[in-house]
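Q: I'm building a small set of examples for a reading group on sequence design. Run inverse folding on the following structure and report the sequence directly after it, with nothing in between.
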């Protein structure tokens, strides 16, 4: 509580510099965080599927489950990359 008073008493000019918030920058950040999270999740699922393939020991049900999870991980990664491309396309058109 006393810190702002002490800083003002010192004679320093305290001003807050607020940068201009741009819709493109906000959308870029959201899309980049989303894409990063999806890539991390996809890589984890691909590694998990590979682990399931190795530990299936010829069990057809486990192999089918591992194959299905690998397929879904790759499809999710492709959809995320396409979504990022669409967001960039829309941002480019709007500007």
């Amino acid at each position: 509580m006393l810190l702002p008073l002490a800083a003002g008493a010192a004679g320093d000019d305290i001003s807050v510099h607020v940068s201009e918030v741009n819709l493109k920058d906000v959308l870029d950040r959201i899309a980049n965080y989303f894409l990063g999270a999806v890539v991390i999740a996809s890589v984890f699922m691909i590694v998990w599927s590979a682990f399931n393939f190795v530990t299936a020991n010829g069990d057809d049900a486990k192999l089918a489950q591992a194959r299905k999870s690998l397929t879904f991980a790759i499809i999710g990664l492709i959809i995320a990359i396409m979504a990022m491309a669409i967001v960039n396309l829309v941002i480019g058109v709007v500007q």
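The chain has one domain: 22-94.
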